[in-house]
Amino acid sequence: MQLGVRDAAGLMNVSEKTIYRWIKQNKLPAYRINEQYRFSRAELLEWATAQKINVSAEIFGDSTQDETPFDSLADALRGSIHYRVGGTDKTSVLESVIQIMPLPQEVDRTFLLKVLLARETMGSTAIGGGIAIPHVRNPIVMHITKPVVTLCFLETPIDFGALDGKPVHTLFAIISPTIRSHLSVLARLTFALRQSEFAAVISSQGSRDAILPAVANVDASLNMKNKALIESRGSAE
Fold this sequence. Notes:
- With 237 residues, the chain is an alpha/beta fold.
- It folds into 2 domains: 5-59, Multidrug-efflux Transporter Regulator, Chain: A, Domain 2; 73-226, Mannitol-specific EII, Chain A.
- Helices cover 46% and strands 15% of the residues.
- It is built from 9 helices and 7 strands; from the N terminus they run ααββααβααββββααα.
- It has helices spanning 5-12, 16-24, 41-51, 73-77, 90-100, 109-121, 179-192, 196-203, 208-236; strands at 31-33, 36-38, 81-85, 126-128, 131-132, 148-158, 168-175.
- The strands form 2 sheets. Strands 3-6-7-5-4 form a 5-stranded mixed sheet. It has a two-stranded antiparallel sheet with strand order 1-2.
- β4 and β5 form a beta hairpin.
């Protein structure tokens, strides 16, 4: 919760006046500390994802500067794309998803299910258009060293409590080892779902051979944007 109003406005690409308006309307997750508003970077990104708001590339930043940056959604997704995943409601679908996630043997999958369900009680992770991104808000110890994204196309669309009321047919389940990687995965996935090529292949439940190249193109595009941002900062200094 180290972000102030000016920080939030910059990350969301809006004016400070807009931030205050969203707070007043009880739309934006904010905390009042010592008469000032403070924000969680993870909560801002989650909220922007649900609202389909484009965010600045700066939201990728984190205080953990010595960690190797996450820069490949394709690597996180490779080997974990599944079709006709079963389940008749949110709980049973998440049970099915957790069982097929490529996690180390020592991971307590029952505990992971409880954590994901607890996250859902705080607000649905459905983002509309039949897509949900179940994840934990802050990473928990799961004996993993890099982010894991599991893409599941459901056998039967289910009610996930989406704001648009549409049943969910596609899930991107995310497990991350650190807050920084969690933010990076969520931001990259949000960016990817706004790209026409990737959105089309997901909507059509394309084959693995079609999905992975589309993800690689997203990675390449976003890495170029981040490189340009870093270079522009360097020239400004």
